[in-house]
Design brief:
Elements: E1 3-11, E2 14-19, E3 22-30, H1 33-42, E4 47-52, H2 53-58, H3 64-74, E5 79-83, H4 89-97, E6 102-105, H5 107-111, H6 114-119, E7 125-132, E8 135-138, E9 143-148, H7 149-152, E10 161-166, H8 178-187, E11 192-195, H9 201-207, E12 213-218, H10 220-223, H11 229-243
Parallel strand pairs: 1-4, 1-12, 4-5, 5-6, 6-7, 7-10, 10-11, 11-12
Antiparallel strand pairs: 1-2, 2-3, 7-8, 8-9
């Protein structure tokens, strides 16, 4: 089952999108992330994907109360997957206690892969592999890690899913890397969630054809009115029905 993950990126409590992960190139889409999340849930989305950009860059989880409020707002309608600054077992425990269904570990996972196995005993863990031309980036996409995407999957045998973000496409509305994501889906030992570049219903339909795909994250395309969450959900359902 391929699921849609409409995204809410938090920076200073606001809903924003960055271009290619550049903190100096942001677009603000609202000051009420809780209402935004509720609108996604009411549209039928099974998940809401939340990223704390402040914590991803600095490690200071200033938006965590907002994440908790989002969980409460969508309770009974959608599950919340959240990342950004999840760097310890204590972080995972705090988010799990707030009702988050799955945490995303990126920089910490790359630096210390064993953390994923430990955190997985507390809450399901998605490993966030954000890359530029195949090299994993860390610390809010501000540093290269030296680890290549193709070599990363085997480090995380307990990962619930892998969130694969092509930083060069993120926020650009230029389409996802279908070829690269197809390779990732074939190599990863868990389902992958595609992130970065989704610009249209056609992109969602193309992604739905990838064997092993577990989900699609969409952000800017929804905020810019390219399609609605309801339309994205319908496109995924139709593509999967056709394939079956």
């Amino acid at each position: 089952m391929i699921e849609l993950y409409p995204a809410i990126d938090l920076l200073g409590g606001r809903v924003v999108r960055l271009r290619q992960g550049d903190y100096a190139d942001e677009t603000v889409y609202g000051n009420d992330p809780v209402a935004m999340a509720r609108s996604f849930a009411e549209a039928g989305s099974p998940w809401v994907h939340v990223v704390d950009l402040d914590a991803a860059k600095s490690g200071d989880p200033i938006n965590r109360p907002v994440v908790a409020a989002i969980v409460q707002a969508v309770s009974g309608m959608s599950k919340v997957q959240t990342g950004g600054g999840v760097r310890s077992i204590a972080d995972a425990e705090e988010l799990a206690n707030a009702g988050v269904a799955r945490v995303v570990m990126g920089s910490a996972a790359v630096r210390e892969p064993s953390l994923v196995a430990e955190a997985s005993e507390v809450v399901p863990v998605a490993v966030g592999l954000d890359h530029r031309s195949g090299e994993i980036s860390i610390h809010g996409w501000t540093q290269g890690s030296g680890l290549m995407l193709d070599d990363a999957y085997e480090l995380f045998p307990t990962a619930a899913v892998f969130v694969i973000t092509d930083i060069g496409r993120d926020g650009m509305l230029e389409g996802p890397d279908i070829e690269g994501l197809t390779r990732s889906a074939a190599s990863a030992g868990a389902p992958i969630i595609a992130s970065g570049g989704v610009s249209s219903i056609a992109d969602i339909e193309a992604l739905a054809k990838i064997p092993g795909l577990g989900g699609v994250i969409t952000g800017k395309a929804v905020y810019e009115g390219r399609f609605t969450v309801s339309e994205g959900l319908a496109a995924l359902a139709a593509a999967q029905e056709w394939q079956s």
